[in-house]
Structure formats: structure tokens, C-alpha cells
Amino acid sequence: MGCITKHYLNKETVIGVWKIEEDLETLLTMVDMSREDRNRYEIFRSNSRKMEFLSVRALLAEMLGREARIVYNKNNKPFIKDGSHFISISHSNKLTAILISKDERVGIDLEYMRVNINAFASKFLNKGEKITRRWADRTYHLYIHWCAKEAMYKICDKEGINIVNDITIEPFEVKEAGEIKGTVKNERINDRFTLFYSRYDNYTIVWTKKKHEN
């Protein structure tokens, strides 16, 4: 399993992105699953879902060591069991990404770009969001919005956030990579985030981080 990106955002925060090239049997040799991991793993019926699950743990082992364990809260948000890091996870097609930090809340999302995103854009956009009319950039622009909203949803860890109505990405000119702003606002939360996006092959990756406030 080859690490294609391991990018330190600062001394406490790092993104790891891996490409899944191994078969299921090889991935199984790369992780030490706890009983809870094994129980979750055995629920999955498809090999692709099992490989995603194993790739996350293989990448985490590369970043924090094979003893690192992921646990989940009632909203299915992942945490490092020993509390040493905040963590956010994403996977799509053949890529897996993990963003970890010792002192910042984090959110990351990646998606393999398919042209049919135009058909369901209304499922995640609201009327205040602007998408380019330039057709060559439109698909990527839409994916940035989608991934940004997912990253913000993950970092907030709040129940009842509506992707369409509660999360807004401020207008921006789409580039190969860049910085954007977004807000999450409803009756329980009002927060603004800086997000960073980039393209890798046919994938869109968006991440955000913010100092944890006790």
C-alpha cells in the first residue's frame, strides 16, 4: 500500500492519503483489529467496503502506529480511543484519507468525480450558493461544494445539521486548488470555517481545521 501524500499542516496536524492497490488478503496482514473492529468488519458484505475499512486502519497504523484504535460515538463520528488526536476520515473509489490533529478539530472529505453530480446538485446546494456557468469548471465546482459541506458536517459533530439549509459555502472563483469560506448556522450552532480544496487526478479533496475550545 503506497502512501501518495503525507502532508504536515503544522507540527500537530497531518493529512495522509493512500491509494488502495492491494487485495483483501494483503490488507488484512497490515492491520491488527480489535474485537470491536472485527465485529464491524464482519458486518460488511462487499469486498470493496471491507477494503475501505481495512485501508483506513492501515493508513492510521502508518500515521500513529499499529496500536492506534478508532472508536465511534452515537453519531458514528470517529475518535482515537486514547484521546490523543482528533480525527476525520474519508474514502472514495480507490483513495482513503485521514486528517489527524493533537489540538485542532478537523474535517476532511474526498470524492471521485462523476459527471452526474449535476443531476442531484439540489440535494446539497441552497439558493445563496453560486456555481460557475462555465461548463468546463462546473463539475469540479459542484464537487468542491459537496466535499466542503461534508467536511464541515464532520468537524461540527452536531446532530440535526441540514446540509442544504444549515451549511453555506460563500461564493468563490474555482481554481485548481484554493481557499474558501463556509458557515454552519442553525438554532444550536453558528460557526464559520476556512476550508482548503485541491484536485488529485479525478478526485476532489477538501479539508478544514479549527482550534478546539474546551
Structure description:
The structure is a single chain. The chain has helices at residues 24-28, 35-43, 47-64, 135-156, and strands at residues 2-10, 13-19, 70-72, 78-80, 86-92, 95-101, 104-112, 167-169, 177-185, 190-200, 203-211. The chain is an alpha+beta fold. The model has no long low-confidence stretch (mean pLDDT 93). The N and C termini lie far apart (37 Å). It contains four helices and eleven strands; from the N terminus they run ββαααβββββαββββ. The chain has a five-stranded antiparallel beta sheet with strand order 7-11-10-9-8, with helices on one face. A four-stranded antiparallel beta sheet has the order 1-2-6-5, sandwiched between helices. The protein is globular and about 50 Å long. It has two domains: 2-104, 4'-phosphopantetheinyl transferase domain (Ribosomal Protein L22, Chain A), CATH 3.90.470.20; 109-208, no CATH class.
What are the segments in which pLDDT stays under 50 over at least 5 consecutive residues? none
**What is the annotated CATH architecture of the largest domain?**
Alpha-Beta Complex
Q: Quaternary status of these chains?
A: single chain
CATH superfamily of the largest domain, by name, is 4'-phosphopantetheinyl transferase domain
Q: Indicate how many domains the architecture comprises.
A: 2
The SSE order reads: EEHHHEEEEEHEEEE
Shape: globular
Give the N-to-C terminal Cα separation. Answer: 37 Å
> Helical segment tally?
4
Determine the CATH topology of the largest domain.
Ribosomal Protein L22, Chain A
Mean pLDDT over the full residue set? 93
What is the CA-based Rg, rounded? Answer: 17 Å
Q: Please tally the β strands and state the result.
A: 11
